[in-house]
Amino acid sequence: MSTAMDATSLALLEDTLRKIMASASGPALDQALAELGWAEMLSEDPDAAIPLVFRLLGETGAHASVLNDVVLETIGGLPGGTPPMPYAGGSWVIWERSESAGNTVLGGLPLRQVPNGELMRLGEARRAVGWWLVGSARAMLALARRHALDRTQFGKPIAGFQAIRHRLAETLVAIEGAEATLTVPVTESPDLTSMLAKAAAGRAALTAAKHCQQVLAGVGFTAEHDLHRHIERALVLDGLLGNARDLTRRVGGGLRARGSAPRLVQL
């Protein structure tokens, strides 16, 4: 990967990454990203690296241990480590870089619970998981949209039914809103904006899971369909680094104690 890429180079890189993620996951994908220069781009151009890589992880359903790298880059930790990260319910997990039979798997992710951890700066990591959630939500929306166009009732595609259109539209609005929150330039209160962005992305993914499941109906529950994998992944990622409900509550409590709200966006 190279930094300061123009739109054409970025599009070519996205196409390359999408093809790699379609055929590799876990340690194999870690290796492929390392060969592409993931560490250099994360260090030199995180604003491009994080949205691109993590969104594509969500859209393709692949996974890699790159969240470790984002946390370590933020706190100045040694490369290759597995820093403990907070998880829903007051627990802590680490993201294993290697896969083994003894690893705990949550949502297809090699997460292992650890006794405790230490709170640290998690702004960039929360945004990274937010982009992953947005990618997962877009993958679910794509599956539901394709089904709505292909499935016919009463002689026409169910995509023409108002109830179906409303569910798909509400999902798209939630996703676009989350993306807008994730792309807000951080000028002040970076912790606050990252928590709100992660919460918005989590809610968008949960909205996608609910509505897309309804559109797909019974087929969405089957093991053969990809939807359940994205739903499970979204539920796990929502809980990582604070779920949407907890983060919203924390932000609200902080603003009440402060007695005012900072300006987050210049309109």
UniProtKB/TrEMBL annotation:
The keyword Transit peptide applies. It comes from the Bacteria. It holds the Pfam family Acyl-CoA_dh_1. GO terms for molecular function: fatty-acyl-CoA binding; flavin adenine dinucleotide binding; glutaryl-CoA dehydrogenase activity. The keyword ATP-binding does not apply. GO terms for biological process: fatty acid beta-oxidation using acyl-CoA dehydrogenase; fatty-acyl-CoA biosynthetic process. Keywords: Flavoprotein, Oxidoreductase, Transit peptide. Residues 121-238 form the Acyl-CoA dehydrogenase/oxidase C-terminal domain. This is Acyl-CoA dehydrogenase. It comes from Mycolicibacter hiberniae. The lineage of its organism: Bacteria, Bacillati, Actinomycetota, Actinomycetes, Mycobacteriales.
